[in-house]
Amino acid sequence: MTLLKPPPLRLLLVDDERLARAELRRLLAAHTDVEVVSEASNGEEALTLQAELQPDALLLDVQMPEQDGLAVARALDARARIIFCTAHASFAVEAFDLNALDYLVKPVAAERLAQALERLRAELAQRHSPYLPDEHRVLLRRGEQMALIRLGDIALIESRDNYLELHTPQGVFLLPGSLTRLLPRLDPQRYQQINRQALLRLDAIAKLQHSAEAGLQLQLHSGQWLAVSRRQSQALRQRFSLGD
Predict the structure, then answer these.
(1) Quick check: pTM over 0.70?
(2) Dist CA 180 CA 159 (whole Å)
(3) What is the number of other CB atoms lying within 10 angstroms of the CB of residue 165?
(4) pLDDT digits (tens, 9 = 90+) for 67-83
(5) Which strands form 163-168's sheet, in the order they lie side by side?
(6) Is residue 152 within 8 Å of 135, Cβ to Cβ?
(7) Distance CA 59, CA 170 (A)
(8) Rounded Cα–Cα distance for residues 112 and 21 (Å)
(9) The pairing of beta strand 82-86 with beta strand 57-60
């Protein structure tokens, strides 16, 4: 079976200096999954090309004549992704207030550009994914206490009648619902059902061992031990390349 490659990252370079755009092109040439769709030398041209080409991101200079990069960012659709590239670090706070994905200071280092591109790839993957991201926050209840908890901080989810018990570093919280309804919204690369009543994040597992019933037992980083059903034991063995 041939796996399809993900589409290239389509970038628009915006800088009033031709040599600066050429240097970005040189650095980007090291990334085989990047396509520079066009270049703009001023803010008006950048906005026109953004609307026409719909790139995945703009590599945007801040200081440009007439309409600077910050003004361009304010004029863009809120969904536009921006990586600022500028010789001036003093604009960083305002740039991130405009939801910039990253802020690179010239001369741009190859390593920092690679980090920014990796952030862009992660952002695109998350935006296109049908699953809830780790940063998604869930309003949970424990007695009279309510708390907003990151999905990525929930290690274990257990079914209890019409509620789910969610185990977090802040304690155990309740959420109305069922595993059946929740499972399709969780990334199967990160979560595994271990029996009919429980599922967990794979990175919460500290130890796996065989049990007397031909299944598995596992220990969480919290120290809690859990039994894994025969069916799910087989799935975990395959996932972690464990022998029988």
Answers:
(1) no
(2) 10
(3) 17
(4) 888 899 889 877 789 99
(5) 145-150, 137-142, 171-176, 163-168, 156-160, 198-201, 191-195
(6) yes
(7) 40
(8) 16
(9) parallel
